[in-house]
Amino acid sequence: MRIADMDWRMVEDWVRHDDRCVLPLGSTEQHAGLSLATDAILAERIATEAAEPLNIPVFPVVPFGLAPYFSGFPGTVTLRVATFAALVRDVLDSLKGSGFRRIMIVNGHGGNQPVGAIAQEWMMDHPDARVRVHDWWRGPLTLAAVQRIDPVAGHAGWMENYPWTRLADRPPEEGGKAVVDVDRMRTLPPFEVRLLLDDGSYGGRLQRDDSEMLELWDVAVQETRSLLEEW
Protein backbone atom coordinates (compact mmCIF):
# COMPACT_ATOMS: atom_id res chain seq x y z
CA MET A 1 0.00 0.00 0.00
CA ARG A 2 1.70 3.15 -1.19
CA ILE A 3 1.63 6.22 1.01
CA ALA A 4 0.86 8.10 -2.21
CA ASP A 5 -2.51 6.33 -2.19
CA MET A 6 -3.31 7.20 1.44
CA ASP A 7 -4.29 10.28 3.38
CA TRP A 8 -3.31 11.12 6.96
CA ARG A 9 -6.46 9.58 8.45
CA MET A 10 -5.63 6.25 6.83
CA VAL A 11 -2.13 6.34 8.34
CA GLU A 12 -3.57 7.18 11.75
CA ASP A 13 -5.94 4.22 11.47
CA TRP A 14 -3.14 1.90 10.31
CA VAL A 15 -0.75 2.56 13.21
CA ARG A 16 -3.51 1.75 15.70
CA HIS A 17 -3.15 -1.94 14.82
CA ASP A 18 0.25 -2.28 13.07
CA ASP A 19 3.44 -0.25 13.44
CA ARG A 20 5.30 -1.50 10.34
CA CYS A 21 6.21 0.58 7.29
CA VAL A 22 8.73 0.44 4.45
CA LEU A 23 11.16 3.13 3.32
CA PRO A 24 12.94 2.54 -0.03
CA LEU A 25 16.34 4.15 -0.59
CA GLY A 26 17.83 4.62 -4.04
CA SER A 27 20.26 6.76 -5.96
CA THR A 28 20.30 8.89 -9.10
CA GLU A 29 23.49 7.96 -10.94
CA GLN A 30 24.85 6.71 -14.22
CA HIS A 31 23.86 3.17 -15.18
CA ALA A 32 25.45 2.97 -18.63
CA GLY A 33 22.51 2.61 -21.08
CA LEU A 34 19.90 2.13 -18.34
CA SER A 35 17.91 4.80 -16.53
CA LEU A 36 19.78 7.17 -14.23
CA ALA A 37 17.09 6.34 -11.67
CA THR A 38 17.66 2.55 -11.85
CA ASP A 39 18.49 2.13 -8.15
CA ALA A 40 15.48 4.19 -7.09
CA ILE A 41 13.14 2.38 -9.52
CA LEU A 42 14.21 -1.06 -8.32
CA ALA A 43 14.12 -0.26 -4.60
CA GLU A 44 10.65 1.28 -4.77
CA ARG A 45 9.23 -1.47 -6.96
CA ILE A 46 10.64 -4.27 -4.78
CA ALA A 47 9.28 -2.57 -1.66
CA THR A 48 5.83 -1.96 -3.16
CA GLU A 49 5.37 -5.45 -4.60
CA ALA A 50 6.66 -7.11 -1.42
CA ALA A 51 4.40 -5.10 0.88
CA GLU A 52 1.27 -5.09 -1.31
CA PRO A 53 -0.36 -8.37 -0.11
CA LEU A 54 0.37 -7.36 3.50
CA ASN A 55 -1.10 -3.85 3.08
CA ILE A 56 1.98 -2.40 4.79
CA PRO A 57 2.49 1.29 3.90
CA VAL A 58 5.41 2.02 1.58
CA PHE A 59 6.81 5.53 1.53
CA PRO A 60 8.11 7.18 -1.67
CA VAL A 61 11.67 6.24 -2.49
CA VAL A 62 14.47 8.59 -1.44
CA PRO A 63 16.00 9.13 -4.90
CA PHE A 64 19.39 10.52 -3.85
CA GLY A 65 22.21 8.72 -2.09
CA LEU A 66 26.00 8.45 -1.95
CA ALA A 67 27.63 8.24 -5.40
CA PRO A 68 30.67 10.58 -5.46
CA TYR A 69 32.66 8.18 -7.65
CA PHE A 70 30.15 8.63 -10.50
CA SER A 71 30.05 12.42 -10.31
CA GLY A 72 32.05 12.67 -13.54
CA PHE A 73 28.99 11.34 -15.41
CA PRO A 74 26.33 14.00 -16.18
CA GLY A 75 23.02 13.40 -14.41
CA THR A 76 24.53 11.78 -11.33
CA VAL A 77 23.46 13.35 -8.04
CA THR A 78 25.41 12.63 -4.86
CA LEU A 79 24.94 13.71 -1.27
CA ARG A 80 27.64 14.29 1.31
CA VAL A 81 27.78 11.57 3.97
CA ALA A 82 26.75 14.07 6.63
CA THR A 83 23.79 15.21 4.51
CA PHE A 84 22.73 11.61 3.87
CA ALA A 85 22.95 10.75 7.58
CA ALA A 86 20.92 13.81 8.54
CA LEU A 87 18.30 13.05 5.88
CA VAL A 88 17.88 9.44 7.04
CA ARG A 89 17.67 10.46 10.69
CA ASP A 90 15.08 13.17 9.93
CA VAL A 91 12.95 10.73 7.95
CA LEU A 92 13.14 8.10 10.71
CA ASP A 93 12.18 10.75 13.26
CA SER A 94 9.14 11.66 11.18
CA LEU A 95 8.07 8.04 10.71
CA LYS A 96 8.34 7.38 14.42
CA GLY A 97 6.39 10.56 15.11
CA SER A 98 3.59 9.16 12.95
CA GLY A 99 3.45 6.01 15.08
CA PHE A 100 5.66 3.62 13.13
CA ARG A 101 7.95 1.58 15.37
CA ARG A 102 9.16 -1.11 12.93
CA ILE A 103 10.69 0.42 9.83
CA MET A 104 12.20 -1.64 7.04
CA ILE A 105 14.61 0.22 4.79
CA VAL A 106 14.76 -1.43 1.36
CA ASN A 107 18.04 -0.20 -0.05
CA GLY A 108 18.76 -0.30 -3.77
CA HIS A 109 22.23 1.24 -3.90
CA GLY A 110 25.52 -0.24 -2.74
CA GLY A 111 26.99 3.19 -2.00
CA ASN A 112 24.34 3.74 0.69
CA GLN A 113 26.02 1.24 3.04
CA PRO A 114 26.48 3.82 5.85
CA VAL A 115 22.71 3.60 6.36
CA GLY A 116 23.23 0.50 8.49
CA ALA A 117 25.39 2.37 10.99
CA ILE A 118 23.05 5.37 10.85
CA ALA A 119 20.10 3.13 11.71
CA GLN A 120 21.99 1.53 14.62
CA GLU A 121 22.94 4.95 15.94
CA TRP A 122 19.35 6.17 15.62
CA MET A 123 18.06 3.18 17.59
CA MET A 124 20.45 4.08 20.43
CA ASP A 125 18.40 7.25 20.78
CA HIS A 126 15.06 5.47 20.17
CA PRO A 127 15.19 2.13 22.03
CA ASP A 128 11.44 1.64 21.55
CA ALA A 129 11.81 1.48 17.74
CA ARG A 130 13.40 -1.00 15.35
CA VAL A 131 14.94 -0.46 11.92
CA ARG A 132 15.87 -3.28 9.56
CA VAL A 133 18.06 -2.48 6.55
CA HIS A 134 17.59 -4.84 3.61
CA ASP A 135 19.86 -4.58 0.56
CA TRP A 136 17.41 -6.37 -1.70
CA TRP A 137 19.99 -7.69 -4.20
CA ARG A 138 22.18 -9.06 -1.38
CA GLY A 139 19.52 -11.20 0.29
CA PRO A 140 20.79 -14.80 0.53
CA LEU A 141 18.07 -16.26 -1.71
CA THR A 142 18.33 -13.45 -4.26
CA LEU A 143 22.12 -13.63 -4.34
CA ALA A 144 21.94 -17.41 -4.82
CA ALA A 145 19.55 -16.91 -7.74
CA VAL A 146 21.97 -14.39 -9.31
CA GLN A 147 24.82 -16.88 -8.97
CA ARG A 148 22.76 -19.61 -10.65
CA ILE A 149 21.98 -17.38 -13.62
CA ASP A 150 25.37 -15.71 -14.10
CA PRO A 151 27.97 -15.08 -11.37
CA VAL A 152 29.40 -12.12 -13.31
CA ALA A 153 26.87 -9.49 -12.26
CA GLY A 154 28.00 -5.93 -11.68
CA HIS A 155 26.85 -2.35 -11.75
CA ALA A 156 24.77 -1.41 -14.82
CA GLY A 157 25.02 -4.97 -16.14
CA TRP A 158 22.41 -7.64 -16.71
CA MET A 159 21.36 -7.86 -13.05
CA GLU A 160 19.88 -4.34 -13.21
CA ASN A 161 18.51 -4.63 -16.72
CA TYR A 162 14.74 -5.08 -16.39
CA PRO A 163 11.94 -3.89 -18.69
CA TRP A 164 11.26 -1.13 -16.16
CA THR A 165 14.87 0.17 -16.01
CA ARG A 166 15.40 0.30 -19.78
CA LEU A 167 14.84 3.47 -21.79
CA ALA A 168 11.98 3.35 -24.26
CA ASP A 169 13.78 5.39 -26.93
CA ARG A 170 17.03 3.41 -26.82
CA PRO A 171 17.53 0.01 -28.47
CA PRO A 172 18.45 -2.87 -26.14
CA GLU A 173 22.18 -3.13 -25.50
CA GLU A 174 23.63 -6.50 -26.42
CA GLY A 175 26.92 -8.19 -25.62
CA GLY A 176 29.15 -7.10 -22.77
CA LYS A 177 32.71 -6.19 -21.87
CA ALA A 178 35.60 -7.32 -19.70
CA VAL A 179 35.14 -6.86 -15.97
CA VAL A 180 36.84 -3.72 -14.68
CA ASP A 181 39.15 -3.61 -11.67
CA VAL A 182 36.67 -2.26 -9.10
CA ASP A 183 39.26 -2.17 -6.31
CA ARG A 184 41.42 0.10 -8.45
CA MET A 185 38.40 2.17 -9.41
CA ARG A 186 37.75 2.95 -5.74
CA THR A 187 41.16 4.66 -5.50
CA LEU A 188 40.50 7.03 -8.41
CA PRO A 189 38.98 10.52 -8.59
CA PRO A 190 35.68 10.87 -10.52
CA PHE A 191 37.15 11.96 -13.87
CA GLU A 192 39.48 8.94 -13.91
CA VAL A 193 36.59 6.64 -12.95
CA ARG A 194 34.79 7.83 -16.07
CA LEU A 195 37.83 7.09 -18.21
CA LEU A 196 38.18 3.62 -16.67
CA LEU A 197 34.52 2.64 -17.03
CA ASP A 198 33.90 4.18 -20.45
CA ASP A 199 30.18 3.33 -20.87
CA GLY A 200 29.69 3.18 -17.08
CA SER A 201 29.15 -0.54 -16.55
CA TYR A 202 31.45 -2.72 -14.45
CA GLY A 203 31.58 -5.48 -17.06
CA GLY A 204 30.02 -8.81 -17.92
CA ARG A 205 26.85 -9.25 -19.97
CA LEU A 206 24.62 -6.23 -20.36
CA GLN A 207 21.36 -8.13 -20.80
CA ARG A 208 19.87 -11.58 -20.29
CA ASP A 209 16.55 -13.10 -21.32
CA ASP A 210 13.55 -11.53 -19.64
CA SER A 211 12.33 -14.92 -18.45
CA GLU A 212 15.47 -15.20 -16.31
CA MET A 213 15.07 -11.65 -15.08
CA LEU A 214 11.45 -12.16 -14.02
CA GLU A 215 12.41 -15.37 -12.23
CA LEU A 216 15.08 -13.46 -10.32
CA TRP A 217 12.65 -10.65 -9.59
CA ASP A 218 10.10 -13.04 -8.09
CA VAL A 219 12.76 -14.41 -5.73
CA ALA A 220 13.76 -10.91 -4.62
CA VAL A 221 10.16 -9.84 -4.01
CA GLN A 222 9.30 -12.98 -2.06
CA GLU A 223 12.46 -12.76 0.05
CA THR A 224 11.69 -9.15 0.94
CA ARG A 225 8.07 -10.04 1.71
CA SER A 226 9.17 -12.87 4.00
CA LEU A 227 11.24 -10.44 6.06
CA LEU A 228 8.19 -8.23 6.50
CA GLU A 229 5.92 -11.17 7.35
CA GLU A 230 8.20 -12.63 10.02
CA TRP A 231 8.69 -9.25 11.71
UniProtKB/TrEMBL annotation:
GO terms for molecular function: hydrolase activity, acting on carbon-nitrogen (but not peptide) bonds, in linear amides; metal ion binding. The keyword Nucleotide-binding does not apply. GO terms for biological process: riboflavin biosynthetic process. Keywords: Hydrolase, Metal-binding, Zinc. This is Creatininase. InterPro entries: Creatininase-like_sf (IPR024087), Creatininase/forma_Hydrolase (IPR003785). Its cofactor is Zn(2+). Belongs to the creatininase superfamily. It comes from Rhodopila globiformis (Rhodopseudomonas globiformis). The keyword Membrane does not apply. The lineage of its organism: Bacteria, Pseudomonadati, Pseudomonadota, Alphaproteobacteria, Acetobacterales.
